[in-house]
Automatic annotation (TrEMBL):
GO terms for molecular function: RNA binding; zinc ion binding. Residues 396-489 form the DYW domain. The keyword Repeat applies. NCBIfam families: PPR. This is Pentatricopeptide repeat-containing protein. The keyword Membrane does not apply. Pfam families: DYW_deaminase, E_motif, PPR, PPR_2. The lineage of its organism: Eukaryota, Viridiplantae, Streptophyta, Embryophyta, Tracheophyta. Keywords: Repeat. It comes from the Eukaryota. PANTHER family: DYW DOMAIN-CONTAINING PROTEIN (PTHR47926:SF409), PENTATRICOPEPTIDE REPEAT-CONTAINING PROTEIN (PTHR47926).
Amino acid sequence: MRKGGFFPDEFTLGSVLRGCAGLKDAISGVQIHADVAKLGFKSDICVGSSLGHMYMNCGLLDEGERVMKELPIRNVVSCNTVIAGRVQNGDPEGGLRYFHLMKQIGLYPDGITFTSVLSACSELATLGSGQQLHGQVVKNGVVSEMAVRSSLVKMYSKSGCLTYAERVFHEEEDGFEVDLVIWSSMIAAYGFHGCGKEAIELFEKMSVNGFEPNDVTFLSLLYACSHSGLREKGEQYFNEMREVYRLEPKLEHYTCMVDLLGRSGHLEEAEDLVNSDMPMDPDVVVWKTLLSCCKVHKNAEMAERIARRILELDPHDSAAHVLLSQVHADSDRWGDVLDVRSGMKEKKVRKEPGMSWVEVKNKVHQFRMGDTSHPEYKRIEEYYRGELTRKMKEHGYVCDITTVFHDMEDEEKESSLSVHSEKLAVAFAILVTPPTGPAIRVMKNLRMCTDCHVAMKLISKITGREIVVRDVTRFHNFSDGDCSCGDYW
Ligand SMILES: [Zn+2]
Ligand SMILES: [Zn+2]
């Protein structure tokens, strides 16, 4: 078009910018930004918004926000672009910050705004802020919007509050409409919390109510089955998905099935599924799912085979290295453990550091193993190592050296000296909240190790506190010495 001597107008520019956003092609995007300036469309709201959206989608969040701020008019739509841009591109805190800014300049958030900020709270598992938003949702009169309500269900579920999620879901009885997304969100909520039976009941109820499930619904349902050990049910639904509903399973569905088979100890079947039944090429996630099943069932031989496949795809995958070294450690093959470890050093593979967050009085506190920067650090560590550990030992706690030594976290320097981040977070919450306070909710960026899991059970018994830990795969709800996962995770 340009070679033909035509000048692009605001519609052309908007379209190509959306193209760049879709392709995440910032280089072409920047060139078009220059054209926008040259052709004098800098102040055009539509072009400006597309430009901001392009930058955000390409991960250049600050640049995107700057473009949006330079627009002559700031309205709800332009603010929504920035908020959604931040939340969807890995910066939920930034999304919430802009939301507060938006209210400060006197703009009223709408349903789309709330959908974005609620999903930011889901990411951060900040129940306090999420509840405040729920209040604002009601006040702003958008509570009947279905997208908002399914975001509320997700937020409560991801913050560990299944009962509140259920309450929002059941508001349908108050005359609110429901759609497939809300049903699917609630099924997913049951799955996260290890309530497979409830998820299945809801799925059946949904069909009776005339809603036809889509692939997202099935993904939630299969996830729920695999996380509750319901292998036969899972297989049944996987078949129904194809045969009754004519939905083609995607890679995620296969991953769920691999998890379902592998967890229940059918490792060979799971491997066959990946090797011969899947119509698409397996990715690292599928293999890693199978690898962690090998760890659970202590199958070192298969673990090695699978780890090799993963490292072919991504030689620097830290989780694969760590899992493999754990499998070796579990079968006392310490020579192999050392091999994996030195291999990691050679390749300079860096493990993701373990981090935990806990929200106390609407403030989020972050803990990282070995990081002493928290203002209360000394007190927390003293309390954990002293009083709490002593009481745990009275209840039969023996520190599990193998997992402490071979945890997924970076414990190489100070293995036995350091306390895993979720323990610090819980100890801190116990210290600063009243003994009769609400459940302690911790979020963790990796999988919990066995030792922390045992410790949390005992701490819940000793202190009488309910503790909810959301790790990277699921929820653990500890109370009175037991966990909702039934040690199945
Ligand atoms: Zn741990
Ligand atoms: Zn658990």
